[in-house]
Design a protein that fits this description.
single chain; 277 residues; alpha/beta; TIM Barrel; eight-stranded parallel sheet; 9 helices; 14% strand; globular; disordered N terminus
Length: 277
């Protein structure tokens, strides 16, 4: 049963590691696949976190918008202790700019390639240097890409030396063979020691698939390499999903409080460089 909206659940997550914040004043990217006609500003998200007892949050850069990360950076400036964020920047971005963003609370650079058919060769320039600069600044790559592409992308990213955070269970395919190959690639990357996977946006896939991938990752790597995120405000699913539903789904996928607490510890250490209390 879903948690009643407004009720603070027991054992709330410490970190929502994946949410998007935006306003209608922000320009859409030319290739935006959706165009929300409402605001979900940082204060609205923080109100959702407060309502559900969640202390920290990580903004995931939204590929829908083309505001040069201005709104995200302003949110970080307003809530420096509570929030971190990823950004979307071109591969030519220089080390000074990345360092300034890191100082502002940016923890990673998002590669939103889920809908990209012709993926770049990240072992060549400009990506080779870009990944080196990201790693040198202590940032991670936040990868959003389909499971079919993970066997190619993850070894190349790992070879670059950068830390990797994979969104949305690795966007598992409905095809069992393709999904299995993608999950295998996630497990191999985790074994390399620099990769984490978000159990986020589970509502965007059949529950059986989310449960399958979550169980495989937990069995292979344990909770120390997993993170949880709400994917608020649930773009294209706003009428079907409430924030409380994402918590209910998380508890169904990871039913043991001690395991969820270990996921909290991983998120606090990775994003906030702090131990949980």
């Amino acid at each position: 049963m879903a948690i009643e909206e407004g009720a603070v659940p027991a054992e709330a997550p410490a970190v929502d590691a994946h949410a998007h914040v935006f306003t209608r004043a922000m320009p859409f990217a030319a290739e935006a696949h959706s165009r929300p006609d409402y605001d979900y500003g940082v204060e609205a998200w923080l109100a959702d976190l407060d309502r559900h007892g969640i202390s920290h949050g990580v903004i995931a850069a939204a590929s829908l918008f083309d505001d040069g990360n201005a709104y995200t950076l302003s949110a970080l400036a307003s809530h420096p202790g509570r929030l971190r964020a990823t950004v979307i920047v071109p591969p030519e971005t220089d080390a000074t700019t990345l360092a300034e963003m890191a100082d502002a609370g940016v923890v990673g650079v998002r590669l939103a390639w889920r809908r990209v058919e012709d993926l770049p060769d990240i072992a060549r320039e400009p990506y080779r240097g870009f990944l080196r600069r990201i790693a040198d600044r202590g940032l991670h790559v936040e990868l959003l890409s389909r499971s079919a592409s993970l066997p190619r992308l993850l070894p190349a990213l790992d070879a670059s030396g950068v830390r990797i955070v994979v969104d949305h269970f690795g966007v598992p395919s409905r095809d069992p063979e393709e999904r299995g190959a993608g999950t295998d690639a996630l497990c191999r990357a985790i074994d390399g020691g620099r990769t984490w996977v978000k159990l986020s946006a589970g509502f965007r896939m059949p529950f059986a698939i989310a449960a399958e991938v979550a169980a495989r990752l937990l069995a292979h790597a344990g909770p120390e390499r997993l993170l949880w995120g709400s994917d608020a405000p649930f773009v294209n699913h706003e009428g079907d999903i409430r924030f409380a539903d994402t918590l209910d789904l998380y508890r169904r996928l990871v039913p043991h409080p001690a395991v969820r607490a270990a996921i909290d510890r991983a998120a606090l250490l990775l994003f906030f460089n702090q131990e949980s209390e």
